[in-house]
Amino acid sequence: EVDGSGRPVTLTVGVYGTFGLKEAGLYDTYMRLHPEVAVRQTSLARADVYYPQLLTHLTAGAGLADVQAVEVGNIAEVVDTQAGRLVDLARAPGVEEGDFLPWKWAQARTEDGRVLGLGTDIGPLAVCYRKDHFAAAGLPTDREEVGRLWAGDWRKYLETGRRFAGRAPEGVAFTDSASGVMAAVISGANPRYYDARGRLVVADNPAVRAAWDLGAEFARYGLTARLQQFTPDWDQGFAHGRFASIACPAWMLGYIQDKGGPDGKGKWDVAAAPRPGNWGGSFLVVPAAGEHAEEAAELAAWLTAPEQQAVLFERRGSFPSAQAAFGLPQVRDARHPYFGDAPVGRIYSAAAEGVPVAPVGPKDGLVNQILSDTGMLQVDQTGRSPDSAWRAAMKAIDNALDR
What we know:
Layout: E1 9-16, H1 26-33, E2 37-44, H2 47-60, E3 67-71, H3 72-82, H4 102-107, E4 118-130, H5 131-136, H6 143-150, H7 154-166, E5 173-175, H8 178-186, H9 206-220, H10 232-239, E6 243-249, H11 252-260, E7 268-272, E8 278-285, H12 293-303, H13 306-316, E9 319-320, H14 329-332, H15 344-353, H16 364-382, H17 386-400
Parallel strand pairs: 1-2, 1-3, 5-6
Antiparallel strand pairs: 3-8, 4-6, 4-7, 4-8, 4-9
């Protein structure tokens, strides 16, 4: 049977948000290389609406795209609960374990060694900062010197913030939010919310508590713009230059450029983060119930191959999870004109290679959200005591997970 495209096989790819594969022209390239295949994308704007639907459809074995995107905060739950309903992609043509960062490959692997998701992008951390605000406060503006201010320790980032606050320009905070600092610190911890046996350890993990306490100190010293990330106010904060620095995964470069607009060009730069961490990233999975599961696995393997990941980075700023892409010129030599031609390929590759292989738990995304939005946001915006907010967040996590 031939569909309206005149091609015998139509493959659908289900994604959330502006995922980038279509925007980077990858489907068009694939169709050129495979005249017998048509690729169509379905997209939902919000990940938090997309994911519950995906689980429902997987359980029912119906209503699925041939290839589906899964956010890193949900991949452990998908691997845990849907293993029998997904194709083992380690065996798909062209897939090489050695191409991928070991910690990324491990995140979608079952205990018996099947790999149910292939990594698209990752979110290695740097710090983006405003050179004009740093200069006004008497701090260095050269990215190497800025990186040295806090090298090795997030507490030095706090100390830099206190120096900044002493001479800050009117109406400019050192960073956007206490939650952003906390998330960045946790992103480099091992373990984080779950241990290697899949047990929730968030309440007893000293690394999480230390990240919480550091975020709370930023709030206490008045070093944040008290914004909630991914809200219109936060977007306005970029547009109006209301903060001087932000923990900045690779995917945030495009976001800052969008929200900061033409006025921000050349004012921003990128320095190494105090410690390596990873915040964000996604996978592609292939439901076994699909009519074209074999062709879909081939498409997923091609979309996540190092060469395509390099193109996605060049055109959309999504940083490759395939370490084999780091040496390709689009990544290795990448500079970002909006950020003063910062060598973002080099900065983020170095950050990615230092990320610890931390277990990802089934409710990582939810725990993260509660810690930030129920917990730290209260400390930052209402001055709630860190201890009281911590207890409230732990209780909210227990309730959300029916513990």
